[in-house]
Design a protein that fits this description.
The complex is a heterodimer of chains A (102) and B (428).
Chain A lengths: L1 E7 L4 H15 L4 E7 L12 E4 L7 H7 L6 E4 L2 H5 L3 H13 L1
Parallel strand pairs in A: 1-2, 1-3, 3-4
Helix pairs in contact in A: 1-4
Chain B lengths: L2 H16 L1 H27 L9 H9 L5 H10 L4 H17 L3 H15 L10 H4 L4 H20 L12 H8 L1 H21 L4 H17 L2 H16 L4 H25 L13 H7 L8 H11 L7 H13 L5 H6 L6 H23 L18 H6 L4 H34 L1
Helix pairs in contact in B: 2-4, 2-5, 2-13, 5-6, 5-8, 6-8, 6-10, 8-10, 11-13, 12-13, 12-18, 15-16, 15-20, 18-20
Classes of the chains: A alpha/beta (102), B mainly alpha (428).
Chain lengths: 102, 428
């Protein structure tokens, strides 16, 4: 089971992508728990997540988020801009898988 | 564009967007938004203008007796907007303490307590309501930051009572805050005593007159509105969340301005005569329609220009982005088209909001369109938002439609140019 959290400013714009990613995971028969939340709520989930993906519009939070999950086995990255804009669930899911396998 | 200049700009924006205290201020305001919106809607309902021949207020008066039913909305106002300063003192402290990972509830309670300690009293022993509200906003911000910084330092300095093992966590927590709270409240009390002996003015009056009032004066001008519109869109052009980054500055500046409008509207002043033109609802509903860049107009321009080319990438982005755009969420368009770092789109993306800001300002200043007297969630669709923020006026809708038409007209040539460039690129 792979746990993915998408972070943006209010958790609103990434929620569109969340739905697409859940669908993509389901089609592949993959078990994935995908959620969106604002950065301020992330600390409560630091030990409970495998991949944190950051919305490109808040990419300046990357260092801060890496600091927050330090000590846990969590991969952090900014979502590919185009994939984010077009809400390409498949592609972002691939990005998450790649990050975890690195 | 000079790339090192650009790098520096992004660095500064990133710093502001992630600076702990600024983020706490912004999140503090976001936390109280539900209360603020409810307070505002209560006032709107209490003073709803007649629709054609039907007067809602008159109808309610007929059923419940004149003015009786408005007591409900009135008390909602008293518990929300009327205590804005106190709410902010609590919620900013809470968010700041949370970011430090120290007991946020204790920090928030200490901050709220300290705030009340400084509020001037009336002669018959009551709290002065004016200072609990928007006029005390800056004191609320300052108090919450000072007390929470002190609290964090004291807690982290281990200047706390330690408990033997086996004592329940809740008990330990309450005692851990005891010494820091004592020291902080003592300091605030001393400060208050000294100030009232030597200056005979309250901190509230000083900060309001020296900081808050002048800043608000600047905020309520056309140049300030243009600067905000410009900054927000430059940030978005670089792919950074503009409203998020400048929110920590905008909210404290503009919330008291709309509060002033609301307070007068509540007391029967018509929406055309309230004092402040530039407010957050002004920008949200007349300029940022469909999100920053008035991108709902961009989508319509795409649908018009590319009506015969359904397969064009622009059309596909527009289709993906349209539903969210109705609720003023436009990240799909900004990143998908993209607008980010796209030199063709830079011009209209900034020109449109600046033009609409000026047009809307003129429309409100001349009295053609009523000023803003309500706060609605920023996700409220255009047309509905224009009607509500103007206190239920069709002129608000008319201004939105005129603005949209102008925005579409500005976007069309750029969409045509961009679409052609993209096609040539693909064929080449």
């Amino acid at each position: 089971m792979m746990r993915i959290i998408l972070v943006c400013s209010a958790g609103m714009s990434t929620s569109i992508l969340v739905r697409k990613m859940r669908n993509a995971a389901e089609e592949r028969g993959m078990e994935a728990d995908v959620n969106a939340m604002p950065e301020s709520e992330l600390h409560a989930h630091a030990g409970n997540v495998d991949v944190v993906l950051i919305g490109p519009q808040v990419r300046y939070l990357e260092d801060q988020i890496k600091e927050k999950v330090k000590g846990y086995d969590v991969a952090v990255a900014v979502i590919d801009q185009m994939a984010y804009g077009m809400a390409r669930g498949e592609k972002v899911l691939d990005q998450a898988l790649e990050l975890k396998s690195e | 564009m000079n790339s090192s200049l650009m790098q520096n700009f992004i660095k500064v924006a990133g710093f502001i967007g992630s600076q702990r205290h600024l983020v706490a201020v912004r999140d503090g305001f976001i936390s109280i938004m539900p209360l603020i919106i409810i307070g505002s809607l209560a006032i709107l309902i209490n003073n709803f203008p007649p629709l054609g021949g039907f007067s809602f207020v008159g109808w309610m008066d007929g059923i419940f007796g004149e003015g009786n039913w408005q007591a409900v909305g009135g008390s909602i106002w008293n518990g929300t907007f009327a205590i804005l300063g106190l709410l902010v003192a609590f919620s900013i402290a809470y968010n700041l303490a949370k970011s430090y990972g120290v007991d946020s509830l204790s920090a928030a309670l200490i901050s709220a307590g300290s705030y009340i300690m400084l509020v001037p009293w009336t002669e018959d022993g009551g709290l002065t309501v004016a200072w609990l509200g928007a006029q005390g906003l800056f004191v609320g911000i300052i108090i919450s930051i000072i007390t929470t910084e002190l609290f964090r330092l004291l807690v982290q300095s281990k200047l706390t009572i330690s408990m033997p093992e086996g004592v329940p966590e809740g008990v330990i927590k309450s005692f851990r805050a005891l010494i820091p709270a004592t020291i902080i409240l003592l300091l605030i009390g001393l400060f208050q005593a000294i100030i009232s002996v030597f200056i005979e003015l309250s901190v509230f009056e000083i900060i309001f007159q020296v900081i808050q009032q002048p800043l608000q004066g600047i905020g309520n001008t056309l140049p300030a509105a243009i600067v905000i519109a410009f900054l927000n869109h430059i940030l978005w052009f670089f792919g950074l969340h503009g409203t998020n980054i400048i929110g920590s500055v905008i909210e404290p500046l503009y919330l008291p301005l709309i509060e002033e409008n609301l307070e007068m509207f509540k007391n029967g002043v018509p929406a055309t005569e309230v004092p402040n033109l530039v407010t957050k609802p002004f920008l949200d509903s007349f300029v940022f329609m469909g999100g920053s860049g008035t991108t709902i107009a961009l989508l319509i321009a795409i649908f018009i220009v590319l009506r015969h080319e359904q397969k064009h990438p622009y059309n596909e982005v527009a289709k993906v982005g349209a539903p969210a755009s109705l609720f003023n969420i436009n990240e799909p368009v900004i990143f998908g088209l993209p607008i980010v770092l796209n030199p063709i789109m830079l011009i209209p993306f900034i020109l449109v909001p600046v033009t609409l800001t000026v047009m809307s300002y003129v429309a409100l200043a001349s009295g053609i369109v009523p000023r803003t007297v309500a706060i609605v969630p920023w996700t409220t669709p255009p047309i509905l938002s224009g009607y509500l923020v103007t206190g239920g006026s069709w002129r608000g809708i008319a201004l939105q439609i005129v603005n949209l038409a102008v925005a579409i007209a500005i976007y069309i040539p750029f969409v045509t140019a961009g679409a052609r460039a993209l096609k040539q690129n693909k064929e080449a």
